[in-house]
Structure formats: C-alpha cells, structure tokens
C-alpha cells in the first residue's frame, strides 16, 4: 500500500479538523428554555440575550438585562376572573354606564378629532371611546408595572411563551429605534398607552406617542381598519365589523361589551 507523504497526511488531518471545527461552530447555543417560576429567569435571560444578539441592538440587549421577574404579572395572568363573568356582571364591574356617559361627552367635545379619524379609517367614535374607557378609564389609569419586565416574564413563562417571545422581540426593537423607553411603565401584561397596546401592535399599528390620547385613538382605529373594518357597516355580533373588535381582545364578554357600549355612545340604543 502506498503511504501518504507526511505533508499530504498533515493536510488531510488539518482538513478533517477544520470540518469538525466548523460543524461545532455551527451548532446552535442552548436555546432559552421557558420556566414556571422565578428561579430560572436569570439563566433564561442570559440565554435569550445570546439568541437575540444580531437581531437586537445594544440598547435592546442592555434593556433586557435590566429586566426582573415580575410576580404581579404572573398573578394577573393566572387570575383574569372577570372574563368569566356574565355579560351583565362584567359590564357592571367595568362601569359601563359611566363609560357611556363620559364617552358621549367626549364624542361631542372632541367632534373634530373623531370626524378626522372616521374619515381616515372608517371607524366611528363609539367603539373607540368604548375601548378607551374600558382599557384605561379614558387615560386615568395606565398601569405602573415595568413594561419590559412584564413582557420578558411572560416570554419566559411556559404558559404563552411563543406569543410573548414575539412581543418581547418587538419591545426590544422599539427600544432600539427609540420608540419605547426601556423604563416605560404599563399594565400587568406590558400594555402601553391610553388604549393599551402590546409591543408588536405598536410596531404594526402605532401612530405617534400612545400616551397621547389623539395618537392612541388613531392607532386603535388603524388597528381596527387593518383587521377588516368596513366604513358604514355595523359592529354588533353577527355584523361585518364585529370581527375587527374580536381581533382587539379574545374574551367574548369583552368583545360584546365593547359593541354594546359603542352602540350606546353612537346613539344606537340603550
């Protein structure tokens, strides 16, 4: 048998070593694994940051590393009992009659704004005011949680990890491009602004600063329009625009409450 020369043998060994090294380099780092308690959050955060590098800029990574496990968020996520109430009980708990009364006042006092929104997006004042009133009491209560920590906690938590991982990437992108402060405060699930937008919806439908009422209402109308709202069509259950309201919130009792309150504000019945 003819033996390889020393130089050829060395070359072959080197080539094999490079292939093995390349395969090792190509192997992905251990994926960030979801968890069901605070204990694994810091390790998950480190793993997620490694996965995110290259997709997320330095500002976003720095903001992520400053997040903490938010126990109140988990408590709220597990305890959304009001969505299991009857429609009548839900509307009473949410103060529907007060929302209607205030909504009618705002529809009149801000008539030019709502006319402009309706001309642009086709959405009448009623459902926008119903959402605004239901979400934050017309801006009275925005929530006081560290929004990014809330979203990161839910991305780590196994119950809806995939959904909130998308929201977390959106939040980090917003921070990178200066549209969201790393210290922003929001509600229990990380919703932001007067009508409570999650980060991915801010990216896709946000118009201006959502802490501003006009911008939040335009953004909400933009969301509904993008989800099939048809100008002049009805928005009660069974009517064409009810599906756009369903896209806003998946809870049936919430969807019906928005439709009813909106109709009452728009003058379509008690």
UniProtKB/TrEMBL annotation:
Keywords: Signal. Residues 1-31 form the signal peptide. It comes from the Bacteria. It comes from Methylocystis iwaonis. InterPro entries: Lysozyme-like_dom_sf, MltB-like, SLT_2. Residues 41-235 form the Transglycosylase SLT domain. This is Murein transglycosylase. It holds the Pfam family SLT_2.
């Amino acid at each position: 048998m003819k033996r390889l020369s020393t130089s050829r043998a060395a070359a072959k060994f080197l080539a094999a070593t490079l292939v093995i090294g390349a395969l090792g380099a190509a192997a992905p780092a251990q994926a960030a694994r979801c968890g069901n308690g605070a204990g694994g959050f810091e390790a998950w955060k480190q793993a997620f940051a490694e996965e995110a590098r290259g997709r997320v800029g330095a500002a976003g990574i720095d903001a992520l590393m400053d997040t903490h496990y938010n126990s109140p968020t988990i408590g709220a996520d597990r305890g959304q009992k009001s969505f299991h109430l009857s429609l009548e009980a839900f509307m009473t708990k949410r103060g529907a009659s007060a929302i209607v009364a205030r909504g009618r006042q705002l529809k009149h006092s801000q008539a030019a704004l709502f006319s402009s929104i309706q001309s642009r997006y086709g959405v009448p004042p009623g459902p926008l005011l119903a959402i605004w009133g239901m979400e934050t009491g017309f801006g009275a209560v925005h929530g006081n949680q560290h929004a990014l920590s809330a979203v990161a906690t839910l991305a780590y938590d196994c119950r809806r990890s995939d959904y909130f991982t998308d929201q977390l990437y959106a939040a980090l992108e917003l921070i990178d491009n200066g549209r969201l402060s790393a210290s922003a405060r929001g509600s229990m699930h990380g919703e932001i602004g007067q009508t409570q937008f999650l980060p991915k919806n801010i990216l896709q439908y946000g118009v201006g600063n959502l802490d501003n009422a006009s911008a939040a209402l335009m953004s909400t109308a933009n969301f509904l329009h993008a989800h099939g709202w048809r100008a002049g069509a009805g928005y009660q259950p069974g009517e064409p625009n009810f599906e756009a309201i369903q896209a806003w919130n998946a809870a049936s009792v919430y969807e019906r409450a928005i439709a009813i309150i909106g109709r009452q504000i728009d003058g379509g019945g008690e």
